[in-house]
């Protein structure tokens, strides 16, 4: 005896269907990006193994291979300066912008969140290196709004206090970075809080320069236990 079970599903139409489609497409793109990153890491590891094998038994060759490896790791960790085409985003208070009592001054209360969102969008859309007011962002970096005893708040990047104008410098794909900022209406959202946002592209091999990270690294204060 053959039994067939039919299950009906509610039909999704309109904005719900579009939202589901966008969510799925975003997930697929993220998975594809992760897949490409893993493939690059595998290829890099295989190249390093081949390099070490080729240098086996030759002290000078092995030392050169290790030095090149150390330089590569330092670059990927953000310890060295990076130059290339990119953009700068300057954010500062502009009293000439239209005043709305509901949103004016709100940026001072959420500046860490707003700048954090911008940075995340840039990294996800073509940025390879980013700094904020000269502070290089690495995997252990923090962007925090810290309140003092007087009640005033100060934005800190890598625990270093910074003040306006906030300048975000990003090396990477200019078109992709500008596109995501346009799509998210970044300038308009900051303007309604009376914050000016100037986005400037810089082309060429030395368009912008992001400095190397200068703060403490994980394990810097660790000591060996005897």
From TrEMBL:
**Key word Coiled coil present:** yes
Recorded coiled-coil stretches: 21-55
> What InterPro entries is this protein classified in?
DUF881 (IPR010273)
Per UniProt, the keywords (alphabetical) are: Coiled coil
* Top-level division of the source organism's lineage: Bacteria
Family as reported in the entry's similarity comment: Belongs to the UPF0749 family.
Give the protein's recorded name.
DUF881 domain-containing protein
